UniProtKB/TrEMBL annotation:
<dbReference type="Pfam" id="PF00691">
    <property type="entry name" value="OmpA"/>
</dbReference>
<dbReference type="InterPro" id="IPR006664">
    <property type="entry name" value="OMP_bac"/>
</dbReference>
<keyword id="KW-0998">Cell outer membrane</keyword>
<dbReference type="InterPro" id="IPR036737">
    <property type="entry name" value="OmpA-like_sf"/>
</dbReference>
<dbReference type="InterPro" id="IPR050330">
    <property type="entry name" value="Bact_OuterMem_StrucFunc"/>
</dbReference>
<dbReference type="Pfam" id="PF13441">
    <property type="entry name" value="Gly-zipper_YMGG"/>
</dbReference>
<protein>
    <submittedName>
        <fullName>OmpA family protein</fullName>
    </submittedName>
</protein>
<dbReference type="InterPro" id="IPR027367">
    <property type="entry name" value="Gly-zipper_YMGG"/>
</dbReference>
<keyword id="KW-0732">Signal</keyword>
<keyword id="KW-0472">Membrane</keyword>
<dbReference type="InterPro" id="IPR006665">
    <property type="entry name" value="OmpA-like"/>
</dbReference>
<dbReference type="GO" id="GO:0009279">
    <property type="term" value="C:cell outer membrane"/>
</dbReference>
<feature type="domain" description="OmpA-like">
    <location>
        <begin position="107"/>
        <end position="224"/>
    </location>
</feature>
<feature type="signal peptide">
    <location>
        <begin position="1"/>
        <end position="25"/>
    </location>
</feature>
Length: 224
């Protein structure tokens, strides 16, 4: 049984408390995170994870010391990730300058959300030529910050056949992935995924909700 005042328990409590406050990754209406908060959150979450890993790697007699060492290392790594994400987010906002593109910083990833209505014509997966400029800007930012992997995730509303929507979301995600790769992002970093209509962020009962659900998300995941 873990002592409630032990380093392991304290670190885990902090990690869980912060995790409960994390903004959902796919929420495009999330408020901006105050400057520096992601650095602090990353440090605390890293400390919790590091403490747990350190404690589990040692026998009962050495778990306290191992947890403290793990917490220090994890805190440094987590703070570095949070700080890097804050910088990358600021640079990306300045480089894009497009109010139609939403950027959410959750503290452990960046989610760049592009409404499908500005990327594609209805039932098409050919990216509009004027929007390819924005995608090339994102690609330039990804090259500037190479220590990450990228998931390109396509989403649709619930209109039409679910199987058709799934295929369309896959093709649209793949089209965005191809633009990023053609703009110089390593193909080894980028994976395209189709979610179809399975992960709405708004109600499909209204036109506005459907428009929010039709989107492509570029999820930037820092390497630990």
């Amino acid at each position: 049984m873990i002592n409630l005042k032990s380093p392991v328990a304290l670190a885990l409590a902090g990690s869980m408390a912060l995790g409960a406050c994390t903004v959902p990754a796919s929420d495009p209406n999330a408020p901006p995170v105050p400057a520096g908060q992601n650095t602090q959150q990353g440090a605390l979450v890293g400390a919790g994870v590091g403490a747990l890993a350190g404690a589990l790697s040692k026998g009962d007699g050495n778990r306290g010391d191992a947890a403290l060492i793990g917490a220090v290392i994890g805190s440094a790594v987590g703070a570095g990730i949070g700080y890097s994400l804050d910088r990358q987010e600021a640079d990306l906002r300045n480089q894009l300058g497009n109010d139609n593109v939403t950027i959410v910083n959750t503290g452990d990833r960046l989610i760049v959300s592009l409404p499908q209505d500005i990327l594609f014509a209805t039932d098409s997966f050919a990216i509009r030529s004027d929007l390819q400029t924005d995608l090339r800007t994102v690609a330039s930012n990804l090259r500037q910050y190479p220590q990450s992997t990228i998931q390109v995730i396509g989403h649709t509303d619930s209109d039409g056949d679910a199987a058709y929507n799934q295929r369309l979301s896959e093709r649209r995600a793949g089209a965005v992935r191809d633009v990023l790769i053609n703009a110089g992002v390593s193909s080894a970093r980028v994976r395209s995924i189709g979610r179809g209509e399975s992960q709405p962020v708004a109600s499909n009962l209204s036109a506005d909700g459907k428009a929010q659900n039709r989107r492509v998300e570029i999820v930037i995941l820092p390497n630990a």
